Amino acid sequence: MNFWILLSVNSITFGGLLFLLSSGFSLIFGLMRIPNLTHGSLFMLGAYVGASFLAGFLSIKLDFWLAAILSAIVVAAFGALMERLLLRRLPGDQLAQVLVTLGISFMVADFCLMVWGGDPISVATPAHLSGFVRYGPAVFPLYRLAIIGIAAAVAIGLWLLLERTRLGAMIRAGVDDPDMARVVGIRVSQLFTIVFALGAALAAFAGIIGGPILSVYPGLDQDMLPLALVVVILGGTGSLLGSFVGSLIVGFLYNFGQALLPELAYFILFLPMLLVLVLRPQGLFGRQLS
Amino acid sequence: MSRKITRRKVLAGTAAGAALATFKFPAPAIAQAAPFKLGLLTVKTGPLAQGGIQMEQGVMTFLKEKNNMMGGRKVELFSADTGGSPAGTKTKAQELVELDKVDVILGPLAAFELYAISDYIIQQKMPTLSLAAADDLTQRHDNPFLLRASATSSQAMQPMGHYAATEMKLKRVVTIVEDFAFGYEQMGGFQASFEKDGGCVVKKLWPPIVTPDYTPYLAQISDCDGVCQGFAGSNPLRFMKQYAAAGLKYPVVTGETGGDDALLKSFGDDALGLVSCCPYTLDLESDGNKRFVDGMLKNFNTVPGFYAAGLYVNCEVVDAGLKAAGGDASDKAKFMAILKKVSLTDTPRGPIKFDHLGNVIGNFYVRRLGKEGAKYGLKLWNKTVKTYDNVSQFWTWPEKEFLAHPVYSRNYPPLRKC
Predict the structure, then answer these.
(1) Residue ranges per domain, chain A?
(2) What number does CATH give the domain B33-151+285-362?
């Protein structure tokens, strides 16, 4: 019984982390149709930058949340530059976009290796969240439960942004029909830069939030990117609800798959993605791709 | 005479050229002063880079200390990045052997890389000193040109199993390690020796190499009094964190990579009490180790671990072999025989010598991770609690008996009822 409770709760918390990771990817792919394979590296870069801020930057030791937000801003700036200087020159050319983003991900990974070295970096759990919650014989680390709260807060924030602000309306218009959006005077290219920066910021924020659980190490990008891809393909691109539901599904598949059938762990993870691609290519909640 | 190229001229020219080619020029007497070419196969990109960078630092520390000389000859180092893939290793090995014409190869890092070039090494008769722990390459599929001064995968885990059963008095252990050969061989060694001394392995868990979250496996650890982990690279850090976060309190034992001294700066308080058995320990108070550690700190401002020490010791072996050979490494088979006979007393890991299969016989140190004795600006320290001397790859079994059973694998030794 303890086993099932533990894994179920962990599925939800892992799903929360996956939501933070994949929401940015989903947004970028949904609006700009760019498969941003740099996403994993931005996650890792955010984690490294955040870890540096936590360890002390210019002899100022930063609070965990402040470090997370600053790290997100730094990586967002990098993302904006990447979009303006490189991706803008490749409109609609998906193959080129895949190759460029993949190339940049290798460069970012090597840059991180150069700057932070090969050894893994431990990120300390914020002090007020480092206890345990006991429910009968089951033990849950408080921080993991807190991630559910953080993911929910970010989800609500993104929903408010998309549904209740003018910027959100423009983004939704751009996702539905970019050409029509241009016709009515929406500066779609400026929107693209903002959305890419937002996606990068979300990835970086996810990286540092995941730090206390995953630590930061070379190869983190390659470990997390496939999970983000599975979530987005399952849930549907451009859809916040899709990211949310997809994350939960992948969280459960990952935990129970690894525990019950470890030899088939990756099979269980990727089989639903395969089925969705064949039977319903737009994902569970995505819009029909025209 | 006309400048046209006639057939006659071509034939005459070819004949002259062929004659010249067969003429043997006398070898210049300056051959001995020619530089000694040292090849290094390491990994500088990707997830294995953590160990690979340390490997290169170990070699550089040795060369800087000896003023770039080995056996009285100047050393030319050719460092190659295999990228952590078998194909890359093969390509770089060929470059080192055929293009750079090295005399000795140090490395590669990983067992799968070594397997990729094992046949090539034998074919080219290239003396190779590798850290790759693949058991069988010095056991049932012995590679005569491989010398291993570090350890086989199971060599450190066998004393660990003995210590866990006899000194820690553990009786029921769950093992958890990555799902690949290095993992199987480590746990096989642990299980064989732990069960020989009265313990029992109740469950074996094999998470994939890429597992961001170990919780699904941690949820299965129960009904035991200890855990044996064998993670490598950055995984031990994540595992110990998540182990503590899951509220598990059983004592944890591990091998050479799971408690590597290079991770001391990264580990947190969640790793306190970790017991590890390693061929190298930072806290060894010897002249050899002091020179090595001081060199690493001075040149790279890094506290060394198992990978750097392993390569430094490999360099010492090559240096001693070259001295014994009078500086002449041109006869590869003869040089290999000399290297196998090398016996050193003051390496950073203590005294070493080699068995007839080319694997090291040396000290293995059991350490406990704590706070006392921490040096070099570290907060945590691995303190040696027991030293096993003269440990061979066969532990206390006679060689024939050990080689008669199959190589350690996922299913060997099999689980038995506890």
Answers:
(1) 2-279
(2) 3.40.50.2300
**DSSP character at residue B405:** S
Of the partner residues B46, B210, B266, the one whose CB lies closest to the CB of residue A120 = B266
The pTM of this model reads 0.88
Chains A and B: how many Cβ contacts under 8 Å?
111
Residue B67 identity (one-letter amino acid): N
Q: What is the interface pTM, i.e. ipTM, of the complex? A: 0.88
Query: Is B157-283+363-404 in CATH node 3.40.50.2300?
Result: yes
Continuous H helices in B260-408: 287-300, 306-324, 332-340, 399-404
Residue B80 near residue B105 (C-beta atoms within 8 A) = no
Nearest CA in chain B to A226: B210
| Chain B residues touching A257 at Cβ < 8 A | 216
CATH of domain A2-279: 1.10.3470
Which residues from A are below 8 Å from B410, CB to CB? Answer: none
B272 has a chain A CB within 8 A of its CB: no
Collapse the DSSP code of A228 into the 3-class scheme (helix H, G, I; strand E, B; otherwise coil) and give the result. Answer: helix
Residues A178-217 pLDDT 10s: 788 889 888 888 888 999 999 999 999 999 999 999 999 9
B247 CB neighbours in chain A (<8 A) are 132, 139, 141
Give the B window 197-216 contacts with A, CB below 8 Å: 205-208, 210-213, 215-216
Where do the domains of chain B lie?
A: 33-151+285-362, 157-283+363-404
DSSP state of A129: G
What mean pLDDT comes out for the span A78-103?
91
